[in-house]
Structures are given as C-alpha cells and as structure tokens.
Amino acid sequence: MTSVKEQEAIRKLMVFLQEWDSAHRVARSRILDNFIKGNDGKTEPELELEFSQGASLFLARLAAWLRMTYMYSTCLNKLLKSIGVFLSAASGRRYLIEFLEIGGVLILLEILGLNHLKEEDKRESVKLLQLIADAGRKYKELICESYGVQSLAEFLAASSSTEAQEDAQALMGSLGHGNPKYQNQVYKGLLAVLPCASPQAQRLALQTLRGVQ
Predict the structure, then answer these.
(1) Which of 4, 19, 42, 206 would bridge with 46, disulfide CB 3.0–4.6 Å?
(2) Which pTM does this prediction carry?
C-alpha cells in the first residue's frame, strides 16, 4: 500500500499534468518558465523525486507538443530548453531514448531547415542534437542516418549568428570523431561548406576539417 505522503505526491503530479493538458499557450509558457527555473541541472533521480516517479509523463507531453507545433514557433525556445533539462540530466539515458522514440532527431533537424524560425530556436535545436551525440556512437550514427550532416552543413553555411555557427561546428566535430562509419560523410559535408558566402562558416569548416582528417 502507498503511504499518505506518496498518495499526496501522486495527487500533486496528476493536478500538474491536468493543468498542462488544459492550459492554452500563455499558461503553458508560464509552466515551462517555472519548470526550467526549478529543474535545470537536476539529475534523473532528482527529476523523478520532483515528479513522483512520473517525470516521463511530462516529457511525453513536451515531446508531443513539440511535434505538433515546431513549425509555428509556439514557445519553441522554452519547449526545447525544457526538453534539454531531461536530455542533460545525469543518469537520464531513458529520457533520451523516450525522446528518440517519438522521432526527436528528425524534428530537431527539420527545425534547422525552416527559414521562418529564429536563429536562437535553431541554436537550441543544435544543443539538443549535441546532447544526443554525446550519448555515444550509436546516437551519432542515428543523427547521420537522418541526414544530419547535410542539415548541419547547410545551417552552418546559412546562419548569421556566430554562436549558432560555433555550436554547429562543435556538433560536426563530434560527429566526425568516434564515428568511423560516417566520418567520410562528415568530411564531405564540411567541404560543402567551403564555397558558401560566409567567411566565418568557411573558417570554422576548415578548422573542423583539420580535426577530422
């Protein structure tokens, strides 16, 4: 039997999830602000404690809302940062797997190619892809299998933000190391950046080429 304390914690979780489910955009934006402020940097056990062992229920809702709204920029930056709280949580590999199961990599890569979205939103997308790549070789391969190298190369060449270009460069470098199956693809992707109109993108691509050769 569950204790009174456990029952109260579960009740609070249900109330929170019902609040999210019934909330409109402005209210959800506020919920995301509070979630990021209160949970950034937490580990998987800490998140589970916060959500009465039901953190995955909230992550599933975030992923579903991302899938439905990413093309329209509805609180996109806050939504990506909130998902990042889960993906960056120490010992939180299961959160990563849950996000990938709903097609998370493809959504993040598609965000990079949407011209009407803000650079800061695309940068958050690159940061999440970096967290995925940092999880190991099979996750790097998944990004590459999803045409990630091409998407990142195009983003690096077209971006007007130095910070975003540097984030894309770092991810390209990650994909080029410890990933022998796709190292040549990364090399070709970096070469494709060189004729672009951005001197900064050219310089970053050359730097990374030297590192992966």
Answers:
(1) 42
(2) 0.96
